[in-house]
C-alpha cells in the first residue's frame, strides 16, 4: 500500500510541476511579445552580487522557469523525510 501511495504522490507532484511550469512559460511568452525588444534580458544573470530587478514580471517568470523545479524537488525531499 505504501508504494501505491508514494507513486500517487509522485504523480501528483509531477502534474503540479508540469502544470505550474506550463502556466509560467505561457505568461513569460505573453510578456515577451509585449516587449519591444529583449535587450533587458541580455543583462540578466544570477551570479556574484548582482541582484536582478524582480519588479519586472518577465524577470520573475524567467527566474521561476529556471529554478522552480529545483526548489520543489528540494522542499518535497525535505518534507518527505520529515513525514517518514
Q: Would you spell out the secondary-structure blueprint of this structure?
A:
Layout: H1 2-34, H2 39-42, H3 57-83
Characterise the protein shown here:
There is one protein chain. This protein is mainly alpha-helical and 84 residues long. 76% of the residues lie in helices and 0% in strands. It has three helices and no strands. The chain has helices at 2-34, 39-42, 57-83. Helix 1 packs antiparallel against helix 3. The chain is elongated and about 50 Å long. The two termini are 14 Å apart. The mean pLDDT is 83.
- The tally of helices reads 3
Order of helices and strands: HHH
Helix-residue proportion: over 70%
* Strand residues, percent: under 5%
Uncertain runs are none
Decide which structural class fits the backbone: mainly alpha
Tell me the Rg in angstroms. 17 Å
Largest sheet properties: none
- Annotation, overall tally of beta strands: 0
Shape: elongated
Task: Indicate the mean pLDDT.
Answer: 83
Distance from N terminus to C terminus (CA atoms, Å) equals 14 Å
Short note summarizing the structure:
By secondary structure, the chain is mainly α. The chain contains three helices and no strands.
Amino acid at each position: 500500500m505504501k508504494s501505491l501511495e508514494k507513486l500517487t504522490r509522485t504523480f501528483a507532484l509531477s502534474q503540479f510541476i508540469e502544470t505550474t511550469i506550463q502556466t509560467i512559460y505561457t505568461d513569460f511568452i505573453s510578456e515577451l511579445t509585449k516587449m519591444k525588444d529583449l535587450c533587458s534580458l541580455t543583462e540578466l544573470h544570477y551570479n556574484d552580487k548582482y541582484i536582478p530587478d524582480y519588479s519586472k514580471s518577465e524577470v520573475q517568470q524567467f527566474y521561476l522557469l529556471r529554478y522552480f523545479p529545483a526548489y520543489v524537488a528540494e522542499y518535497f525531499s525535505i518534507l518527505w523525510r520529515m513525514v517518514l
